[in-house]
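#structure-requests
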Amino acid sequence: MSQSFFFNGFPDFHQRHDAPILDEFRRLAKRQSWRMKDRDFKEIRRECLQAEFEYHFGGIEAGNKLAGWQGLCAELGLSHNIPSIKQCRKALKRVHVNILDLIDDRRAGRQIERYSSARALADYTNEHKRYFPLDDTQGESLIKILLKQIR
Protein backbone atom coordinates (compact mmCIF):
# COMPACT_ATOMS: atom_id res chain seq x y z
CA MET A 1 0.00 0.00 0.00
CA SER A 2 1.37 3.45 -0.84
CA GLN A 3 1.72 6.19 1.73
CA SER A 4 -0.45 9.27 1.91
CA PHE A 5 0.77 12.48 0.31
CA PHE A 6 1.99 13.82 3.64
CA PHE A 7 4.09 10.79 4.60
CA ASN A 8 5.61 10.66 1.10
CA GLY A 9 7.55 13.75 2.13
CA PHE A 10 9.49 11.61 4.60
CA PRO A 11 10.99 8.76 2.53
CA ASP A 12 12.88 7.27 5.50
CA PHE A 13 9.67 7.00 7.53
CA HIS A 14 7.79 3.75 7.02
CA GLN A 15 4.16 4.26 7.85
CA ARG A 16 2.16 1.48 9.48
CA HIS A 17 -0.98 1.57 7.37
CA ASP A 18 -3.30 -0.01 9.92
CA ALA A 19 -2.12 2.14 12.85
CA PRO A 20 -4.19 5.15 13.97
CA ILE A 21 -3.22 8.29 12.10
CA LEU A 22 -2.43 10.28 15.25
CA ASP A 23 -0.14 7.50 16.48
CA GLU A 24 1.72 7.61 13.19
CA PHE A 25 1.94 11.39 13.29
CA ARG A 26 3.32 11.24 16.85
CA ARG A 27 5.85 8.61 15.79
CA LEU A 28 6.97 10.81 12.89
CA ALA A 29 7.04 13.90 15.11
CA LYS A 30 9.30 12.12 17.57
CA ARG A 31 11.58 10.99 14.75
CA GLN A 32 11.71 14.54 13.36
CA SER A 33 12.15 16.06 16.86
CA TRP A 34 8.96 18.11 16.53
CA ARG A 35 7.46 19.15 19.83
CA MET A 36 3.90 20.18 20.62
CA LYS A 37 5.06 23.56 21.87
CA ASP A 38 6.90 24.27 18.61
CA ARG A 39 5.35 27.12 16.66
CA ASP A 40 4.63 25.01 13.57
CA PHE A 41 3.51 21.80 15.26
CA LYS A 42 -0.25 22.41 14.95
CA GLU A 43 0.12 23.46 11.31
CA ILE A 44 2.12 20.33 10.46
CA ARG A 45 -0.45 18.17 12.28
CA ARG A 46 -3.28 19.87 10.35
CA GLU A 47 -1.46 19.24 7.05
CA CYS A 48 -0.99 15.59 7.97
CA LEU A 49 -4.64 15.02 8.87
CA GLN A 50 -5.98 16.83 5.84
CA ALA A 51 -3.59 14.98 3.52
CA GLU A 52 -4.62 11.66 5.04
CA PHE A 53 -8.31 12.49 4.55
CA GLU A 54 -7.57 13.48 0.94
CA TYR A 55 -5.64 10.25 0.41
CA HIS A 56 -8.55 8.09 1.54
CA PHE A 57 -11.55 10.12 0.40
CA GLY A 58 -10.36 12.76 -2.09
CA GLY A 59 -10.94 10.57 -5.11
CA ILE A 60 -14.67 10.63 -4.44
CA GLU A 61 -14.80 14.34 -5.20
CA ALA A 62 -12.03 14.49 -7.78
CA GLY A 63 -13.96 12.60 -10.41
CA ASN A 64 -17.30 13.71 -9.00
CA LYS A 65 -18.48 10.23 -9.92
CA LEU A 66 -21.77 8.98 -8.58
CA ALA A 67 -20.32 5.51 -7.91
CA GLY A 68 -17.74 6.95 -5.49
CA TRP A 69 -20.39 8.86 -3.55
CA GLN A 70 -22.66 5.81 -3.49
CA GLY A 71 -19.76 3.68 -2.25
CA LEU A 72 -19.10 6.04 0.64
CA CYS A 73 -22.80 6.10 1.49
CA ALA A 74 -22.82 2.30 1.57
CA GLU A 75 -19.62 2.25 3.67
CA LEU A 76 -21.38 4.51 6.17
CA GLY A 77 -24.42 2.24 6.34
CA LEU A 78 -26.65 4.18 3.96
CA SER A 79 -28.21 2.84 0.78
CA HIS A 80 -25.78 2.19 -2.05
CA ASN A 81 -28.56 2.99 -4.56
CA ILE A 82 -28.92 6.71 -3.91
CA PRO A 83 -29.64 8.02 -7.42
CA SER A 84 -27.62 11.27 -7.53
CA ILE A 85 -24.59 12.99 -6.06
CA LYS A 86 -26.88 15.72 -4.72
CA GLN A 87 -28.96 13.14 -2.84
CA CYS A 88 -25.78 11.43 -1.56
CA ARG A 89 -24.59 14.77 -0.18
CA LYS A 90 -27.96 15.31 1.47
CA ALA A 91 -27.91 11.83 3.04
CA LEU A 92 -24.33 12.30 4.29
CA LYS A 93 -25.27 15.55 6.06
CA ARG A 94 -27.37 13.43 8.44
CA VAL A 95 -24.49 11.07 9.23
CA HIS A 96 -22.58 11.62 12.47
CA VAL A 97 -19.03 10.23 12.35
CA ASN A 98 -15.78 11.30 13.93
CA ILE A 99 -13.45 12.24 11.07
CA LEU A 100 -10.33 10.86 12.80
CA ASP A 101 -12.15 7.58 13.43
CA LEU A 102 -13.35 7.58 9.83
CA ILE A 103 -9.73 7.81 8.66
CA ASP A 104 -8.52 5.22 11.19
CA ASP A 105 -11.32 2.78 10.35
CA ARG A 106 -10.59 3.10 6.64
CA ARG A 107 -6.85 2.58 7.32
CA ALA A 108 -7.55 -0.54 9.39
CA GLY A 109 -10.35 -1.90 7.22
CA ARG A 110 -12.87 -1.73 10.06
CA GLN A 111 -16.57 -0.94 10.05
CA ILE A 112 -17.02 2.81 10.53
CA GLU A 113 -18.79 3.77 13.73
CA ARG A 114 -21.71 6.16 13.41
CA TYR A 115 -23.33 8.13 16.20
CA SER A 116 -27.06 8.50 16.66
CA SER A 117 -26.97 12.29 16.98
CA ALA A 118 -24.73 15.32 16.80
CA ARG A 119 -24.83 15.41 20.62
CA ALA A 120 -23.60 11.80 20.91
CA LEU A 121 -20.81 12.58 18.43
CA ALA A 122 -19.86 15.74 20.36
CA ASP A 123 -19.81 13.83 23.66
CA TYR A 124 -17.53 11.15 22.20
CA THR A 125 -15.28 13.68 20.45
CA ASN A 126 -14.89 15.84 23.56
CA GLU A 127 -14.35 12.89 25.88
CA HIS A 128 -11.64 11.36 23.68
CA LYS A 129 -10.28 14.67 22.32
CA ARG A 130 -10.49 13.42 18.72
CA TYR A 131 -10.77 16.72 16.86
CA PHE A 132 -10.19 17.26 13.16
CA PRO A 133 -8.96 20.75 12.19
CA LEU A 134 -11.73 22.96 10.85
CA ASP A 135 -9.73 25.44 8.77
CA ASP A 136 -9.57 25.28 5.00
CA THR A 137 -12.94 23.58 4.64
CA GLN A 138 -14.83 25.18 1.78
CA GLY A 139 -18.20 25.01 0.11
CA GLU A 140 -19.95 21.69 -0.12
CA SER A 141 -16.82 19.55 -0.04
CA LEU A 142 -17.07 16.07 1.40
CA ILE A 143 -15.16 17.05 4.51
CA LYS A 144 -17.42 20.07 5.05
CA ILE A 145 -20.46 17.81 4.77
CA LEU A 146 -19.12 15.35 7.34
CA LEU A 147 -17.69 17.88 9.81
CA LYS A 148 -19.95 18.93 12.65
CA GLN A 149 -19.45 21.83 15.03
CA ILE A 150 -18.47 20.27 18.34
CA ARG A 151 -19.27 22.22 21.49
